[in-house]
Design a protein that fits this description.
Length: about 300
């Protein structure tokens, strides 16, 4: 007698896995509410009220390569404060990743990816990009940031050389979560300067409906270029046509103006009259003293 042939094993459907995915997926309404709560909690924390640690509504992560000065590294500070977690090399991240390896730009269309899966940055030195193993820091949604100006003390005013917190903040502003950008930037004394420098650009990027429109905005900004600065001139060049004066000296009015000359003459006449009056008063006082002396002698 042969053994009964067993049927093909069929793995039962994992309801728990579906449940986990369902819980992980977060609606934008729920995310927005959590964002408001986190922002309000951060304001109370700054005022000195005792509140629990602020919880971000989405995960923030960072690959830290040790290139930067620990005292100036904005990413490390965010890790110490509990806003960001560190990732290991070859550890995958399923959210949006700001990386030079990206081929697409951050747009408002990435809003749901950030809300559900979070945002990650790569903390490396701009001077050591060639040494950075970007292939070991991968994920599903690598992205590039459009043209922006840095406000951090190390690269202030330099285009595109953003710090970790500036990269986080820029992404949040573009996808429409500006409150999270403010929450993170307020942890740094200079943080809000970043929004001041890039307000017009960030507003224009956030209003774009597609990547093509965003690239068009960036192209317009780059083609316009910086505003022309005042031309430098040599103050000792007599042929420059520019009048120079010493600000430490009193600047006299031109003599050929009738009004000013009349005022000057009037003021001079008044000064002479005052001097004559003063002299006459002095002269009138002197004889009186001599008369007193004469009277005193005659009385003797």
């Amino acid at each position: 007698m042969g053994r009964k042939k067993q049927g093909k094993f069929v793995r039962p459907e994992s309801k728990g896995k579906e449940k986990r995915h369902k819980i992980k997926g977060k609606s934008l309404e729920a995310f927005t509410e959590e964002m408001h709560n986190a922002f309000e909690a951060s304001l109370h924390t700054e005022e000195g009220a005792e509140v629990p640690q602020v919880k971000m509504p989405c995960p923030l992560a960072m690959w830290e390569l040790g290139h930067c000065d620990p005292k100036r590294c904005t990413g490390r500070k965010l890790v110490r404060k509990g806003f960001v977690r560190n990732l290991r090399l070859n550890q995958r991240f399923n959210g949006l990743i700001l990386s030079p390896m990206g081929t697409k730009y951050v747009t408002p269309a990435d809003r749901e990816i950030v809300a559900q899966n979070g945002l990650a940055v790569i903390d490396c030195s701009w001077a050591k990009l060639e040494e950075t193993p970007f292939k070991k820091m991968t994920g599903s949604h690598p992205r590039l940031l459009p043209y922006l100006v840095a406000a951090n003390p190390v690269n202030y005013g330099k285009p595109c050389k953003l710090s970790c917190v500036e990269a986080f903040a820029a992404t949040f502003c573009i996808v429409g979560f500006e409150e999270l950008a403010v929450l993170l930037l307020k942890k740094f004394k200079w943080g809000m300067v970043f929004l001041d420098l890039n307000k017009v650009l960030l507003d224009r990027y956030a209003a774009c409906q597609s990547e093509e429109e965003l690239l068009s905005v960036e192209k317009d900004v780059l083609s316009a270029g910086p505003e022309k600065e005042e031309e430098e001139f040599d103050p000792f060049d007599v042929n420059s046509g520019v009048e120079c004066m010493n600000l430490n000296r009193h600047h006299c009015a031109p003599e050929d103006e009738d009004d000013s000359s009349e005022d000057t003459e009037t003021s001079d006449d008044e000064d002479e009259a005052e001097e004559e009056k003063t002299e006459s008063n002095n002269d009138s006082r002197i004889p009186s003293c001599q008369d007193e002396e004469t009277e005193s002698k005659s009385s003797q």
